Amino acid sequence: MTMETVQADPSALGGPALFDTMSTMRAMRRLKPEPVAEELVEQLIQAAVWGPSGGNMQRYEYVVVTDRQVMAQLAPLWKRCVDAYLATTGKYAPEGMDEAAYGRMVAAIEYQRDHFADTPVLIVPCYRFPEPRLDEEGLAASARALGPAGTEHMMTTQTRFQALAEGSCVYPGVQNLLLAARGLGLAANITIWHLMLEQEWKKELGIPEDMATFAAVPVGWPAGNFGPVRRRPVADVIHRDRW
């Protein structure tokens, strides 16, 4: 697997602004401690709310942390999650990424870990998926539509289906949030490492037990520079008409 530096083509469909935003939206982990104005934070959440939600249920909620005392209480949890990641999956560079580049990424991760208490804003997207409304007639019709093999597969993959259904209601909004942050000149990155200690995070933030969390997004003014992302070439990822 190879990666290439992606630079937006100003003539790309949709105009240069959006494509330039996407092609320079790196994960930015080095943040200045200066606060972010409340109106900008609300713009980020507005962008997230504009994102599509599965079934248009719109059952998302966003916990926004700006209080330094609360952030300081979260910092030890963040450190434990990051250390657990770096000791396991994060111990090795991803395929196609050279060791020097990965070393720089790890250094940024460690910097964010060690300065987490100074994070200006932390956004935690949450979602409470409703209980399914099912009846015998509907279940029978579903089984007929799927057929025996499809019904059996659906039953054995229900947990994965539920997780993907929830994610499809949340992550489009999170992507909107990240795009809005880049458009406003703010640095941000998405992580789900907090899920390793989700119950402790929820307790610290007073998040209800029946509310699931889907990400932890630190936001602030960048201490570094935005730049072109490195991604796999488009020709390497397209399968036309079939695999």
From TrEMBL:
Keyword Transmembrane: no
Annotated ranges, domain Nitroreductase: 26-221
Sorted UniProt keywords: Oxidoreductase
Keyword Ribonucleoprotein: no
Cross-referenced InterPro entries: Nitroreductase, Nitroreductase-like
Pfam families named among the record's database cross-references: Nitroreductase
Matching PANTHER family: NAD(P)H NITROREDUCTASE YDGI-RELATED, NADH DEHYDROGENASE_NAD(P)H NITROREDUCTASE XCC3605-RELATED
Family in the record: Belongs to the nitroreductase family.
Protein name as catalogued: Nitroreductase family protein
Species the sequence originates in: Streptomyces pakalii
Lineage: Bacteria, Bacillati, Actinomycetota, Actinomycetes, Kitasatosporales
